[in-house]
Amino acid sequence: MQLLLDELSSFSWDTKAVLTLLALSVFCTENWRHTQFEPSDKLLREIASLRGKPRTTMTKAFMDLSNLIKKTLEFTKCIVEFGSYSEDFEEMSANSYYIIVSVLGCSVLFRGMISESNEYKLLHRNIEMISSGCTDIVELMTALFSLTIYQCSKRTTVKVEELKNKSVMLLISDLNLLKDDLATLTSIYDASTFKSENYEIMWVPIVEAHDEAMQKQFLDMRSRMQWYTCTSMVSKTAAQFIRDKWQFRQQTKVVVLDEKGNVVNTDAMTMIRLWGWKAYPFAESKGQDLWKTHGINWLELVENKTIHPYIEQCFEMKELLFLYDSAEDSKTVREIEEHLEKINCYSVSYIAIRISTKREQFLTRLEDCIFSRMQANSDKQGGFAIVARGSRVVVNARLVDFATVLSQHQKWIKRVSQTQAFETIFQEHYDQVIVKPRCHRFYIPNMVGKVPECIKCTVCSRDMKTAITFECCHGGHC
What we know:
single chain; about 475 residues; Glutaredoxin; seven-stranded mixed β-sheet; four-stranded mixed β-sheet; about 50% helix
């Protein structure tokens, strides 16, 4: 501060304020310009790279700083105008001094913001360089995390070199890892082939905020694991790289890396939930091979004993099944259950399963199945209903359509006989009374990860158009 005042000692106080503000303007303009280049601006991009300045977005902090500089400019204009007709030296010097202090404060804040962006840029460039030409998994792990990692079963810190020559499954999630996912991964980890084939799992916890409560939750989750994890929650810069590179959006993902650090699968969690150990070695091509297996059935994959304890026996016995639920439309659910009670009078043998407490697990598995194969229809918001004989799906309907057909059971149920099964008559009446929409749509929520480039319509088998919809529930439940 004193050095600056000595440098400007020959100028009047209002001129000192103006010159200081001008210097800040030049400094910010030059540095901000070099952080706002477009990707197509190759020259400026290279200049920014040489100067160590990444492309920066206008965050709230930058907006606040910009507003502070504008207020300082307005105050400076008032001081200059005041100085043109006032001879109050003491007041002029005091106000100009405050302006100079404010300008220096703005300069420090701006420099700090640029430096923080530089930290991310340097790490980002370092990881990008390593990942693009990586020859050793240890290089990538060190760049992403640190020289040491934590071995959960031994409860000790070890060197990252323990992962050398191993394929690593990066389990990327927040601190709310599902119990079913943890159990499935533990069963895979305990398989003898997993270790003999030099595979390891490493948990990568990513959270928005780091505080004492988060740290406690992190340690609790870590204590339930057997594999490796970071010594602490992932740094903000590494987390941002993972979000950018592997499209992490708080949904649990498993990124599979080979021993050279090359990505084998950007999201193996889908196939792991559906297939478990059968998905080994968890490459994308393995998922395609599994779907080619003779007799594969999507309902068997979605509805397993974790959803209902006796469902596998129902499949084997080829029972008539009604699967249904809705978190929003409890009235229609009650109507369905009333209609099912009336059907009991007709000696129809069936098993009705309301997916209530396991609804989210069911929908998660269904979404995984949709993403993996695009064979099922799901209306996550309005409820769903499935009529099946064993694991063979006969009707996959909206909840309200299912209720409509059941409500008209007196019109068609007497046609059920030994030669005409219940599900056959149900489907015939369903096709008659339910008007299918001209445009067929289904909803793929953000949690399923990347959206496939092409999806076949389940009605006409043509390629479906792709559209993006932004949804807001105004603070309510979506």
